[in-house]
Every structure is written in structure tokens, then in C-alpha cells.
């Protein structure tokens, strides 16, 4: 179930950012940085 939640958030959060007016390139860059910092800390 946890893996499903992560996969859902990978789609939902960038979509939400785009809806609030962020451009796609910035959204993807920030989300990639968020994911990589989370993985580095060992929080999956």
C-alpha cells in the first residue's frame, strides 16, 4: 500500500503545482529534487 501511495503522489503533486500556475520545467525539477532528498534520507 505504501508503494501505491508514493506512485499516486508522483502524479498528484506535480499536477497540483501545474494547476496553481507553476511551469512544467520548474515543477519537474523541484519534484525530482524532493524525491532525491527523500530517498537520500532513507524515507521511502
Features of the shown structure:
mainly alpha, 0% strand, flat
The number of strands is: 0
Strand-residue proportion: under 5%
Q: What is the subunit arrangement here?
A: single chain
Overall pLDDT metric:
81
Could you say which overall geometry the principal axes of the C-alpha atoms support? flat
Reported for the largest beta sheet, the result is:
none
Helix/strand structural class: mainly alpha
Rounded Rg: 11 Å
> What pattern of helices and strands is seen along the backbone?
HH
Terminus-to-terminus distance = 12 Å
Number of helices: 2
Low-confidence stretches: none
Helix content: over 70%
Task: Please describe the topology of this protein.
Elements: H1 2-19, H2 24-40
Helix pairs in contact: 1-2
Short description:
This protein has 44 residues and is mainly alpha-helical.
Can you give a write-up of this model?
With 44 residues, the protein is an all-alpha fold. The protein has two helices and no strands. Helix 1 (2-19) runs antiparallel to helix 2. The longest helix is centred in the N-terminal third of the chain and has 18 residues, at 2-19. The two termini are 12 Å apart. The model has no long low-confidence stretch (mean pLDDT 81).
